[in-house]
Amino acid sequence: MNTVVDMQAVPAAQARGYWKTVFARLLRDRVTVACAIVILLLILMAIFAPWLAPEDPLKSSIFKRLKPIGTEGYPLGTDELGRDMLSRLIFGARLSLVMGITPVLAALAIGSLLGITAGFIGGRVNTAIMRTIDVFYAFPSVLLAVAIWIVSPALPPAGVMLAWAALAIGCAMFLRALDSLPQGAHPAALLAKGLGIMALVAGVALVVGALAGSRDPLRPLAGLMGDAAPAAAPKFERIASSAELDARLAAAGRPVMLDFYADWCVSCKEMEHYTFSDPRVKAKLEGTLLLQADVTANNAEHKQLLKRFSLFGPPGIIFFDAQGREIKGLRVIGYQNAERFLKTLDLASAR
After folding, report:
1. Share of the chain above pLDDT 90, in %
2. Main-chain phi, psi angles of 223, to 5 degrees
3. pLDDT by residue (tens digit) across 100-115?
4. Which end of the chain is more exposed for a tag (fewer CB within 10 A), N or C?
5. CA 290 to CA 235: how far, in whole Å?
6. Residue 167: DSSP 8-state
7. Where are the domains of the chain?
8. Partners of 35 in the beta sheet?
């Protein structure tokens, strides 16, 4: 006997949507949920940092420096400048989010622009763009080298040398510098091994040089080989505000040179390493009071000092006569090599 089933009596299971399925799977993954909660807390902390931070993260006090964890009013203690560590940690969430999101958005914008351009125009433009991207995919060390170069101003000299050493040694391992090649190997394999050995030697030299005290990646073994160390830049007297500058100018009684500097300023370090250390420049600066405004922290006093001279940031050099008046038309904005800077100093001494 045949049994007839009423198909209408059996309700069809509703198909779950794509995003509902994804969301359901995410909720079942406890690690993902925990990470999402942490990211959400960081975002909220960054947004409400002015209301959550107990202190101004940039406010320093010599009387409150190096307070231990658990000090009343300073749960995480203070740093060497007396700044509240908890407040700096809370405000640091903003910088972390910016540093994490900005590269992703930049990559999205650049990648979308290149993709649209390649697809819309096509032909040789498409081929050129795609081959360029293939080069970056084939040689990821190029991207790492660019990253090291970008962050090098924020790293100590020894850290920069060790970073380049790690990259060189990693490339050497990728090129099989220590692997034996079979007889009759392809010439391309022999070339790759030779380049790998060169990279390995360079990496080891950088490591040895960094441990021996060298700080120049281009001359890592200079100290071990007995080469004379590069001449040091003349000593500058640090100032931090317009009031300090006015006091130094009033008491100087001689020409004054004011240099705006920051740790993250690449051109400032180039001026210090190549220009100020030049023996001719050092001799020309004798008899001049050398002042330096370190605006690395970019606090309110630093901003006021920059605004006073209509500067957006370092590097910038201002010259003053013996009466404390600025010598007009002789400002140095940006990097100048020793030859060009000597001409500027000649003009300053002639005024």
Report:
1. 19
2. -65, -40
3. 888 889 889 988 998 8
4. N
5. 7
6. H
7. 21-135, 139-212, 237-350
8. none
Cis check for the bond before 315: say yes or no (omega within 30 of 0). yes
DSSP 8-state assignment for residue 179: S
Q: What is the pLDDT of residues 63-122, one digit of tens each?
A: 787 888 888 888 988 887 788 899 989 988 888 888 888 888 988 998 899 889 988 888
Which residue in this structure is represented by tokens 């700096």?
88
CB 315, CB 293: distance < 8 Å: no
Give the predicted TM-score (pTM) of the model.
0.48
* pLDDT tens figures, 174-230: 888 888 888 888 887 888 888 889 989 999 999 988 888 777 787 788 767 655 555
DSSP 265-281: -HHHHHIIIIITTSHHH
CATH 3.40.30.10 applies to domain 237-350: yes
Q: Using the 8-state DSSP alphabet, how is residue 57 labeled?
A: T
- Residue type for 27, please? L
3-state secondary structure 202-222: HHHHHHHHHHHCCCCCCCCCC
Look up residue 7 and give its two tokens.
């198909």
